């Protein structure tokens, strides 16, 4: 998790496995500490308990606040006298039902937070109070910053309402209270955040949010899957607690009140989004053919096929999976399905923005691909305006291309067809060409042609296969044209880019 100092902090698993290994700064901070945790039996709570016990084994004590549920008694009750021992409090207990009645949502999410914060104020050795909220507490806004936005009612007024009004009256006024918010869950969490902000003076408090609920749903497969891995959320929560405690101890004598509370949002990336169906359309077609014959097109096999020609892929899949059909028949079915499915294949996010930008600045562009001319035509038919931005297109079955990628032929032919080029062809200055690639074989081909390569690899691709690229980025939205002497974008993305640079 990257924090204010632009450095990464992390907790390594099994810290004592390697003899003589030093503890991380986070492990040192939690060593000998007593931790109090609410919501420890929930989804994130269980992950947090497991991570603390596994990666911070020198924690002195870990208290869990639990409650009777479904007529099951609590075997062990939390001791009430711990004012002088608890150093860290993680408050994650909540009702996460979107359709929860207002009374229950407020009692658990708002009143519960108020009581825990009172408890925190009594802990004389407190180093960090972490309120685990949700990134959706302000989901009615187009852009959400890491700050407090405030609620339309104070927590006292809201608690008084739900405690003194009958259920029918509460039900009738709920839509008015929610205003632009979609449900009682987001409204109660927003009010709780507002309370934490107003009543945390003098305490080392931070608010963090990350939530995952849905297991399956019917949706547009190209819609953004706004999810984050639970273990990453937990790592972020623990690292945020460490950072808060560190800053609190370091700044206590100077300004212990003004610097807190702090807000950290742990959300999915705006620049590298994942759709509900993130599989590349071409590989989806191959998978469909394999399933027809009860064969499994594995992720490992798929990764090895990136950048190959249609013919090479068909031969490899038929041989690897021992398909009961010939490579010719497999290729025929591949072409038939491609005609139906390829036109609807989504573009990489940022592709249209990049191509339009370069075209507006009169930067000549060409398409050089291991796909066949037929496949290129299918894509071009679906997006004629976008494909019209290319000066020319070179496919693997072009008459001048003798060998496909990873050989450099395709790129050399593409470079030779630009209007401004030195002659004869054998001395073309190709290093002035910039290539965008998503496959390892494509990177090899471009480098063999003497070109610079920006790689946007699939997440399934082994990191070692990206080493030869000049630059590796997670999304075309991360690309900075000025790094290669090109005009910068006029619309700079709001989030910080994540770029890895590889040496030649």
From TrEMBL:
Q: Which residues form the Thioester reductase (TE) domain?
A: 37-83, 86-207
Q: Where are the transmembrane segments?
A: none
**Which top-rank group of organisms is this from?**
Eukaryota
Q: Which GO terms describe its cellular component?
A: peroxisome
**Example GO molecular function:** alcohol-forming very long-chain fatty acyl-CoA reductase activity
Listed EC numbers: 1.2.1.84
CDD domains in the record: FAR-N_SDR_e
The kind of enzyme this is, by top-level EC class, is: oxidoreductase
GO BP term, pick one: long-chain fatty-acyl-CoA metabolic process
Keywords per UniProt: Lipid biosynthesis, Lipid metabolism, NADP, Oxidoreductase
Per its record, the protein catalyses: a long-chain fatty acyl-CoA + 2 NADPH + 2 H(+) = a long-chain primary fatty alcohol + 2 NADP(+) + CoA
Q: Does the keyword Oxidoreductase apply?
A: yes
Protein role: Catalyzes the reduction of fatty acyl-CoA to fatty alcohols.
Report the family membership.
Belongs to the fatty acyl-CoA reductase family.
Show the PANTHER family listed in the entry.
FATTY ACYL-COA REDUCTASE-RELATED, MALE STERILITY PROTEIN 2-RELATED
Q: What is this protein called?
A: Fatty acyl-CoA reductase
The protein's organism comes out as Brenthis ino (lesser marbled fritillary)
Q: The organism's lineage? A: Eukaryota, Metazoa, Ecdysozoa, Arthropoda, Hexapoda
